[in-house]
Amino acid sequence: MNDLSPTLAPQASPLPAAAGAPGDFDFLFGTWNVAHRRLKRRLAQCDEWETFGGRSVVWPLMGGFGNVDDNVLELPDGTYRAATIRAYDPATRLWRIWWLDARHPDRIEVPVVGRFEGAVGLFTAEELFEGRPIVVRFRWTIESPDRLRWEQAFSPDGGQTWETNWVMAITRA
């Protein structure tokens, strides 16, 4: 059954945080409305953007050393669901973030890796895009307790230049 209803909720109540849990993504727990803005074509000199809505619910895992979100993305050509899985490594003090897209349930994206410095989190990964190597960057900005910004950018030249290709304005529902 493919349920794309607007109701998103974790399957279980989160357990208490474990001792030493980082808390870096605690700001994200809860229910959110998402305004997406995305380039129609990436790394193609495109300046045409599409906009669409979405929703997200985020809750902690592993005593605060991880978290997950359930997302509904309302693309102009059809709504779909996806999940983000995040895990913290206390030895390196780095987060890994994976994306799982319901349209392609047989694969999970390469994780971006990084950390927060104050209200900004930067996460990167080397990846292939249309057969060529790129660097992917996620930037999280905490604007207020009820307003966040997320950006995705690609670099075809090892991080010398960046094309921001997806921006999300996230507001608490």
Walkthrough of the structure:
This protein is an all-beta fold and 173 residues long. It has one domain: Calycin beta-barrel core domain (Lipocalin, Beta Barrel), CATH 2.40.128.20. It is 0% helix and 58% strand. The radius of gyration is 16 Å and the shape is globular.
Helix fraction bin = under 10%
Order of helices and strands: EEEEEEEEEE
Task: Please give the CATH architecture.
Answer: Beta Barrel
Q: What's the count of strands? A: 10
The number of distinct structural domains comes to 1
* Structure classification: mainly beta
Mean pLDDT: 92
Number of helices: 0
What's the N-to-C terminus distance? 26 Å
What's the CATH class, please? Mainly Beta
What sort of overall outline do the alpha carbons produce when their principal axes are compared?
globular
SS strand fraction:
over 45%
Name the CATH homologous superfamily: Calycin beta-barrel core domain
Here the CATH topology equals: Lipocalin
Rg, alpha carbons: 16 Å
Largest sheet: 10 strands, antiparallel, barrel
Stretches where pLDDT is under 50 for at least 5 consecutive residues are 1-6
Order of adjacent strands in the largest pleated sheet: 1-2-3-4-5-6-7-8-9-10
List the helices and strands and how they pair.
Elements: E1 30-39, E2 49-61, E3 66-75, E4 78-89, E5 94-101, E6 112-117, E7 120-129, E8 132-144, E9 147-155, E10 163-172
Antiparallel strand pairs: 1-2, 1-10, 2-3, 3-4, 4-5, 5-6, 6-7, 7-8, 8-9, 9-10
What is the compact description of this entry?
This protein is an all-beta fold and 173 residues long. It is built from no helices and ten strands.
